[in-house]
Amino acid sequence: MNANEQTQLLDDLQSLLERQIEAARADDLFTVEKLARECTERAAEIGHAKTLKHPCGDHEQRLKELHRQLECILADKLAVTEQQLSLVQKSKKLFATYRPPNGK
């Protein structure tokens, strides 16, 4: 694999991560999951090349930063979802407490 092909794969991976971040911010988790599969495929292609033949420090740092951003966004979404689920569960218990015994 030549340097241009390596750079193209890394650029593609970066683009996919950026699109994942946009989708996560838009609460489009279906697209986030779809793009995650594409990222995995792209990373496998890079891995099959065994080693990169030129330094990729800039790409590496950018990819790490994008991955960190995505993790933070998804962790935040998870926390919000857990809070909402907790509220729903508490509400169910509250309604069950005040429901007449015959269910009407």
In short:
The chain is mostly helical.
Describe this structure in words.
The protein is mostly helical and 104 residues long. It has a single domain (3-98), classed as Up-down Bundle (Methane Monooxygenase Hydroxylase, Chain G, domain 1). The chain has three helices and no strands. It has helices at 3-25, 29-48, 57-98. Helix 1 (3-25) packs parallel to helix 3. The chain is rod-shaped. The N and C termini lie far apart (71 Å). The mean pLDDT is 87.
SSE inventory with pairings:
Layout: H1 3-25, H2 29-48, H3 57-98
Helix pairs in contact: 1-2, 1-3
* Class computed from helices, strands and strand pairing: mainly alpha
Shape, please? rod-shaped
Number of helices: 3
* CATH class category name: Mainly Alpha
Order of helices and strands: HHH
Supply the CATH architecture.
Up-down Bundle
Q: Let me know the average pLDDT.
A: 87
Question: How many runs of DSSP E, i.e. beta strands?
Answer: 0
Helix content: over 70%
Q: Classify the oligomer.
A: single chain
Q: What fold name stands as the CATH topology? A: Methane Monooxygenase Hydroxylase, Chain G, domain 1
How much strand content do the residues show? under 5%
N-to-C CA distance: 71 Å
Number of domains: 1
Using the CA coordinates, give the radius of gyration.
22 Å
Which residue ranges are poorly predicted, with pLDDT under 50 across at least 5 consecutive positions? none
Main sheet characteristics: none
